[in-house]
């Protein structure tokens, strides 16, 4: 009887003995299909439009920095969602196979190479071990229905230093109460705040040309020395039908933030916050040109943080200067429309 049951269980087609033949049959079909192209002279004439689209896609990714921002900030919009252009590559590949076009298939290789050159490194795991300081940042959303729970979730990350953005004045006491058991020191400046397990001094607003406070700076004294910690929430950007990608105020604030960091007297600097832009966005050059992204240097994958329901871009950033990133990751979803992010860094970096 036992043998009968084993035979029946294996007959559902899910066992290894069935998978092998199925895979071989699929490969045989593919070989026969490709073999039928040999005598077909049209394989080089068909799919010219697909080939042209593949070339255009490759050029857009390769020359994205040359796309002008003069019309609706089109360049920044393209750079914000640049990784997602890779989705078009398998689409073109399938269409090339359907059209039985050798020309299209060869052309698709070009955007594939460009995409891998731009983002292939992000597909590998660059995380390391060690480090002596853990930091986290979270845009908590002014309309967060559970600020207390959000604060506890972020504290549970084990971060030594936590930055929060989009703090609603009426919710600040709730965040302070929830974080007090873990973080002895804190400062709130306008709509941003910083909480630390280590002594904190010199907390003050940073002028990013908005007319109200959405950025701050403080010195955190860790066991491995003083660190200048900046918290920033740059203005939001909008995609409008008539105006395009409107980001003029965000761009001005990014320049002002970059100037403040450039004149920082301490050599070890951490920037935490919602920059409303990705590392590819040229509008953030004033900041990105002088700092390293922990996700880019020591993360795994793209680390998308927004929107929390289906993350499509990493607009929340942890960046460092004079500090070595060790690992970087995205935290579980809270009551916000952003995901919190965290990083572990080594303060004893080269040249620090």
Automatic annotation (TrEMBL):
Q: Name one Pfam family in it.
A: Exo_endo_phos
Highest taxon above the source species: Bacteria
Compositional bias ranges of the Polar residues kind:
1-11
What is a single molecular function from GO for this protein? endonuclease activity
User: Per the UniProt record, which residue ranges are transmembrane?
Assistant: 48-69, 81-98, 105-123
Q: Establish whether keyword Membrane is in the entry.
A: yes
List residues of the Endonuclease/exonuclease/phosphatase domain: 136-338
- Swiss-Prot/TrEMBL keywords: Endonuclease, Hydrolase, Membrane, Nuclease, Transmembrane, Transmembrane helix
Region entry Disordered, spans: 1-20
SUPFAM superfamilies attached to this UniProt entry: DNase I-like
What name does this protein carry?
Answer: Endonuclease/exonuclease/phosphatase family protein
Q: Which organism is it from?
A: Streptomyces mirabilis
